[in-house]
User: Which sequence fits this backbone?
C-alpha cells in the first residue's frame, strides 16, 4: 500500500455506545450519564471529542439511552469539527451493548472506530487505531478485569476470552474496548449480530460475537498496544478517583494549551 493510499484509508467516523445506565457509578449517574462524568474537570465525552478532532475525525455516531437529553444538549448537531448523529436505544434498561451495536447498523456506511463510553485514554494512543480491523489491548495490571485477548508471537489475535481463559504458551492482554472495523468485517459482524438478536440474545455483550468470529476465523484483528498506565476503564466511583491520579497532570497541560500559554 502506497503512502497516499495508506493515509486515505484512515478512519474518520466513530461510533460511541453511551446508552447504559451506569448503575455501578451511582449516585453520580443519577444526575448525568456515565460519559459526562468528569475526570480532572474534563468529561469523558469532551475528552473523546477533542481526541477525535485532533485525529481528523469528521463524524460521531452516538447510541444514547439513559439521560440522553444531557448528551444531546452537550454535543448538539456538531462539536469540535464533528458532525453528530444519534440513535436512541428505547430498550436501554433491558438490553446490553450487543443491542446498541445492532441498532447502529443502518447508520454505518464507512469504516469506523467503535468506542465505549467509560474509557479515558491519552489521545496519542489512538494514532495506530485509525486504520481498519484493529483492537486496542494493554498489558494486564492488577486493577483490570473482564475480557482479554490471546496474541501469538506473530502478533495475531488468536482468541477473545470473555472469561479470561489464558491459552498455554501464548500471551494474554486486556482489551481496552476500542476497535476499528473495515466495511467487509462490519458486514460479517452485522450478519452475526442479526442472528443473535433474532434469537433473543439482547443481554449479551457484543464481544460474544467478536469471540465467536475470531475463533472460527471469520474476523481478524491486529492488536494495537496501549500503555497500561495511560488509560482507565471507569465503572465505579473508586475507578473515577483512580483515573484522576493518572490524568490530573494531563488536564493541567490541556488547560494551558487551550489558553495559549505554551
Assistant:
Amino acid at each position: 500500500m502506497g503512502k497516499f493510499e495508506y493515509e486515505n484509508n484512515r478512519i474518520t467516523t466513530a461510533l460511541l455506545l453511551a446508552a447504559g445506565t451506569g448503575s455501578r457509578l451511582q449516585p453520580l449517574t443519577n444526575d448525568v450519564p456515565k460519559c459526562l462524568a468528569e475526570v480532572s474537570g474534563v468529561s469523558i465525552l469532551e475528552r473523546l471529542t477533542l481526541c477525535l478532532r485532533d485525529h481528523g475525525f469528521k463524524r460521531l455516531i452516538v447510541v444514547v439511552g439513559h439521560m440522553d437529553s444531557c448528551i444531546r444538549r452537550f454535543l448538539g448537531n456538531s462539536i469540535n469539527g464533528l458532525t453528530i448523529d444519534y440513535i436512541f436505544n428505547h430498550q436501554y434498561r433491558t438490553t446490553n451493548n450487543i443491542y446498541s451495536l445492532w441498532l447502529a447498523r443502518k447508520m454505518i456506511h464507512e469504516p469506523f472506530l467503535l468506542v465505549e463510553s467509560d474509557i479515558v485514554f491519552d489521545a496519542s494512543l489512538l494514532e495506530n487505531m485509525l486504520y481498519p480491523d484493529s483492537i486496542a489491548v494493554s498489558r494486564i495490571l492488577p486493577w483490570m478485569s473482564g475480557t482479554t485477548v490471546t496474541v501469538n508471537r506473530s502478533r495475531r489475535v488468536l482468541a477473545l476470552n470473555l472469561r479470561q481463559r489464558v491459552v498455554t504458551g501464548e500471551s494474554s492482554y486486556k482489551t481496552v474496548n476500542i476497535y476499528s472495523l473495515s466495511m467487509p468485517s462490519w458486514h460479517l459482524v452485522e450478519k452475526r449480530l442479526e442472528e443473535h438478536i433474532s434469537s433473543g440474545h439482547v443481554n449479551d455483550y457484543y464481544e460474544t460475537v467478536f469471540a465467536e468470529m475470531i475463533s472460527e476465523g471469520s474476523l481478524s484483528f491486529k492488536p494495537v498496544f496501549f500503555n497500561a498506565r495511560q488509560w482507565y476503564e471507569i465503572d465505579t466511583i473508586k475507578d473515577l478517583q483512580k483515573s484522576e491520579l493518572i490524568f490530573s497532570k494531563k488536564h493541567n497541560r490541556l488547560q494551558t494549551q487551550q489558553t495559549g500559554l505554551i
